[in-house]
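$ run holo --ligand "guanosine-5'-monophosphate" --emit tokens
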Amino acid sequence: MIVLSSPSGAGKTTLTRKMLAENSDMAMSVSATTRKPRKGEQDGVDYYFVSTSEFEAMIADDQFLEYAKVFDNYYGTPIGPVEEALQSGKDVVFDIDWQGAQQLTQAAGGDLVKIFILPPSKVELERRLKTRAQDSDDVIAKRMAKSENEISHWTEYDYVIVNDDVETSMEQLRAMVTAERLARKRQLWLGPFVKALVQGG
Ligand code: 5GP
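-- output --
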């Protein structure tokens, strides 16, 4: 499981989409939210857009792997699709905030890699939020005010990328994924392979 977190506007969604496009063996976890869809967002693709009462019913029914309130809205990870993807041998990618990352850390034990994306500067973060042109000035101001709190959690992550240039950040992401996949504890096939190797098979 791979978690990506960042303050809103740091470029995490772009990086996540590119990583998914390059890796057919990765699946994106689609969250449920009570936030209204932005222009161009599709239900079931970007999020499952649900009402507050629907979300609360899902909480009561234990349908979330984790959930949190972010910017006055609920966001949560439905458990079913994650389990299915993991069982079919895929890596699952989560675009969730620090609260979700903390909850997943408890649920997942060691099988979780956490990546934090930082913007190169505060000015650039605000510029990206504005050029995205999806949120009102009011919402942008709220997101900027919250960014400091989000950024303060960077020490809870395994890897950090300062996303100045998307291509450079992609190279760094690829390197992390490759290194994590080469970790001995993740190469479960190695035991039998080495046994055969020393036996001359
Ligand atoms: P946005 O409204 O910009 O799509 O997302 C706002 C924040 O909510 C982002 O930091 C995003 O990572 C986080 N988020 C999205 N889905 C989830 C989720 O299922 N759980 C948690 N904890 N955070 C989420």
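-- notes --
Helices lie at 12-22, 52-60, 79-87, 98-108, 122-132, 137-151, 166-182, 190-198.
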